[in-house]
Design brief:
It catalyses: hydrogencarbonate + L-glutamine + 2 ATP + H2O = carbamoyl phosphate + L-glutamate + 2 ADP + phosphate + 2 H(+); L-glutamine + H2O = L-glutamate + NH4(+). The protein is an alpha/beta fold. The protein contains nine helices and 19 strands. The protein binds glutamine (GLN). Glutamine binds next to strand 16.
């Protein structure tokens, strides 16, 4: 069926619609992802909730869909996927589903718009910025009334765990505060010897205390971090009490909790090759990224936070450390999925930080 992506500025990009809910108009924020692989990880990453993801790589779906390895959550998360060409053969995961069959059977109702001039579309987003968009079968009838802008949607509430769940059986107990975590994060923690308890984003401090964690992980998640303003005092109280590592949305929340500010990038960083330098060691990692917002450097003046990592391309802030407490955060994704795992060592630094803290407490 013929379909269209209509940008809020009026530009229309035609294509072919696949998927269960192809007849319905779907609103979202049009953003682009530059990785050559990782489409399944992207399609299931809760950070993409509310967004229409345009893939810059022209051929998507060619290695198939895995049962579990690439799956980051149980649902398809973006509002829609847009691509140049959608492969109907899953080459690597041969006996499994393909992207086409997944879209066609998608109970979640995530349409895929293929055969789109994604090059032109991405150039438009680069010049005009990430923008609201609609996937539709009839561009004439598109309306922007009664649509809540993504900044005002309570997306974390939609994706956060409803109940507490425990994974792994290691000796180090990590409580993962779930703003919309990716499964790869739990897997990475378990691989380093953790037992992980995933708790809803608004879990009170007393419940966290009752779980007696060795450390906290504040996860990634969708939307504007300022949506969680009300949670900041509780987040601050918790992270001041336990060694904490925070990723992406979690990193932004740490900045906000300590009096810093965040701002929105024109079109964000979404891909698998963002170079990040550790300003203390000079080491550069190629990183997996997926974010619209960044911590504002000037806002950190006078706070207890120090910048530890910087993006080599645009000098935006990529990592923070508390000047006194064992609190570290990064804007990028050390758990990868999709993208390189160069920065997986940050998980071992987290476990080292926890061990050091235990030492200090033993001798205190
Ligand atoms: N991956 C994430 O956690 C994204 C954080 C936040 N929603 C942003 O877009 O900046």
């Amino acid at each position: 069926m013929k379909g269209y992506l209509v940008l809020k500025n009026g530009d229309v990009f035609p294509g072919q619609l696949l998927g269960a809910s192809s007849a319905t108009d779907v609103h979202g924020e049009a953003v682009f992802f530059t990785g050559m692989t990782g489409y399944q990880d992207v399609a299931t990453d809760p950070s993409y909730r509310g967004q229409i993801v345009v893939f810059t790589y022209p051929l998507i779906g060619n290695y198939g869909i895995s049962d579990v390895e690439q799956e980051q959550s149980e649902e398809w998360q973006p509002r829609a996927l847009v691509m140049g060409e959608c492969s109907s053969d899953g080459y690597h995961y041969q006996s499994k589903e393909t992207l086409v069959s997944r879209a066609e059977n998608a109970g979640a109702g995530v349409p895929i718009l293929t055969d789109v001039d994604t090059r032109a579309l991405v150039k438009r987003i680069r010049t005009s910025g990430a923008m609201e968009a609609v996937i539709t079968t009839n561009p004439e009838t598109v309306t922007w009334e009664n649509v809540t802008p993504i900044e005002e949607q309570e997306l974390v509430k939609e994706v956060s765990a409803q109940t507490t769940e425990t994974f792994g059986s290691g000796d180090t107990h990590i409580v993962l505060v779930d703003f919309g975590h990716k499964k790869a994060m739990v897997d990475a923690l378990c691989a380093y010897g953790a037992k992980v308890t995933v708790v809803p984003y608004d879990t009170p401090l007393s419940t966290i205390e009752a779980l007696d964690p060795d450390g906290l992980l504040l996860s990634n998640g969708p939307g504007n971090p300022k949506q969680l303003q009300e949670q900041l005092p509780a987040i601050k109280a918790a992270i001041m009490q336990y060694p904490t590592f925070a990723i992406c949305l979690g990193h932004q929340l740490i900045a906000l909790a300590f009096g810093g500010d965040t701002e929105k990038l024109a079109f964000g960083h979404r891909g698998a090759n963002q170079p990040v330098i550790d300003t203390r060691t000079g080491r550069v990692d190629m990183t997996a990224q997926n974010h619209s917002y960044v911590v504002d450097r000037a806002s950190l003046q006078g706070t207890e936070l120090e910048v530890t990592h910087v993006n080599v391309n645009d000098e935006s802030i990529e990592g923070l450390a508390h000047d006194r407490l064992p609190i570290r955060s990064v804007q990028y994704h050390p758990e990868a999925h999709p993208g390189p795992s160069d920065s997986r060592h940050l998980f071992s630094s987290f476990f080292r930080m926890i061990a050091e803290e235990k030492e200090v407490n033993v001798h205190a």
